[in-house]
C-alpha cells in the first residue's frame, strides 16, 4: 500500500480495498463490473512493475516487461 500511496490518496486506497473485499454497497453492480478482488489485482500489478524496475536497477536482467502494468501512471 505504501508504494501505491505515492500515486493515490489513503482514502482512495482504503475504498479500493473495501470494494475488493466486500463489494460496493453504493453500487450493486460492482461485482458485475469486475471489482471483486480489484485491490489485490492492483497491488500485484503495481508490485510486478516495481520488481521489474528493481531488477533493471540491480542489473539482474537486461529487459523487464510488465505487460499489465503502468497503464494510467506511465507518464508520471
From TrEMBL:
SUPFAM superfamilies named in the record: Arginase/deacetylase (SSF52768)
InterPro entries attached to this UniProt entry: His_deacetylse_dom (IPR023801), His_deacetylse_dom_sf (IPR037138), Ureohydrolase_dom_sf (IPR023696)
Domain Histone deacetylase: 2-75
Pfam families xref list: Hist_deacetyl (PF00850)
Protein name: Histone deacetylase 8
Amino acid at each position: 500500500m505504501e508504494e501505491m500511496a505515492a500515486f493515490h490518496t489513503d482514502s482512495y486506497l482504503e475504498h479500493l480495498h473495501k470494494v475488493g473485499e466486500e463489494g460496493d454497497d453504493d453500487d450493486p453492480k460492482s461485482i458485475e463490473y469486475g471489482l471483486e478482488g480489484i485491490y489485490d489485482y492492483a497491488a500485484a500489478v503495481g508490485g510486478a512493475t516495481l520488481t521489474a524496475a528493481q531488477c533493471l536497477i540491480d542489473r539482474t536482467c537486461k529487459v523487464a516487461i510488465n505487460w499489465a502494468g503502468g497503464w494510467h501512471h506511465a507518464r508520471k
